[in-house]
Amino acid sequence: MNLFEVADSDRKSQYRNMSEVLEACRIQDLSSSTNLKASRIRSLLNAYRLTKAYEPDSKVAYVVEQFPNELVYALGMIPWNIESMAILLAQHGCADSFINLTQQNNVSRDICSFLRGSLGVIMANCYPNPDIVLANDQPCDCLSKLANITSKNYRSPFLSISTPTELNEDTLDYLAGQQRRLMKDMAAALNMEFNEADLDRTVQHSNEAREYFCQTAELLRDYRLPGVSRELLEIFGMNAFGMQENVQLCKTLYQEASDMSKKPENKRSGKRVLWAGQAPDGSHEIMQYVEKEVEVIFWAPLWNSNMMKLNPDDPYRSIAQRAIEYHWHMERFEVNLAEVCDSYGIDGIVISNAWGCRNMLALSPMMREVCGEKKIKYLTINVDFMDRNNYAFNHVKNRIDAFLEILE
């Protein structure tokens, strides 16, 4: 693949390009979406912040998955997750033209489809022009490479931090120091002022939202709460911790989950399946098919990293600890997976291998070992929720049927 430069960096043109794509997708049937009030708030919040990013005066920072966005919000910038935005388009059937564009430009189909989809949106010039591009090699080094390519395409400053895998005092000091320097480098690159009090404020917002997030996850242990685990997954994917409006979103979800838990019929019952790996949206045929038979709990929101609140007295060090916890570390994930299976009453695990994702392929043997130790059934499916050329429901339906049958 040859590098290219985005010729028209005018955000009005980019907004128009994106609007044309979305207009073509409006016939999509979303009738199966959740009825949670929190889901509607999230949709409105996403629409507002994404539209805001196209305004000429907005400061936009492209970020990768699990970047510590508290640092971005502290400078008054809008974080734009280049991969999550492409996934959002794919959820509503809008990714085909972008995938086709990458193939026309000789991007290898062996690369993770989520990265190819993201690159396709950039090639189509549908994202708002970034003021800066930020990376932290999580959850994979491929995202950092994509961020670096993106910065060259848009001729934008590129800054990155390296997150160690092991968690100890030395790695915490090392990463916290990088983050302190990053704040100064971001401010200098954008000719902005940075005040530590602004970071303190975003940390407070992050902790307030996280408190409601954790309380909601706790309720899921003992109650069947339709749509709640899915909403926790979506909030995790937004990575809006540090944004003031996210506090109200998480609070609303907790209040709804708490109200549902008071109804006798919502006491936990029936079979529970833990979904590990990339999950399609709730209206996808796979999710509709599985959830007719069992309750699905999503693993990612229940990682230890998502249960952490930040230390307001030493925010950089606690953000560093959370970042290291986010790494797909085999031994730490094994401990967490075993605990989740026990405390959430898991009967089976769906291991969802997304096309081209090396991380999930590496984690799969560990998850199968945990299932063997816990005498839990598991199903491995190979799917592609971005590139429909690599997916057909009939390819996995028979295997899902057999899995559901042995669960019963």
From TrEMBL:
Pfam families in UniProt: HGD-D
Record-level Gene Ontology MF annotations: hydro-lyase activity
Domain of life: Bacteria
Coiled-coil ranges (or none): none
Family statement drawn from the similarity comment of this UniProt entry: Belongs to the FldB/FldC dehydratase alpha/beta subunit family.
InterPro entries, alphabetized: FldB/FldC_alpha/beta
Cofactors: [4Fe-4S] cluster
Annotated protein name in UniProt: 2-hydroxyglutaryl-CoA dehydratase
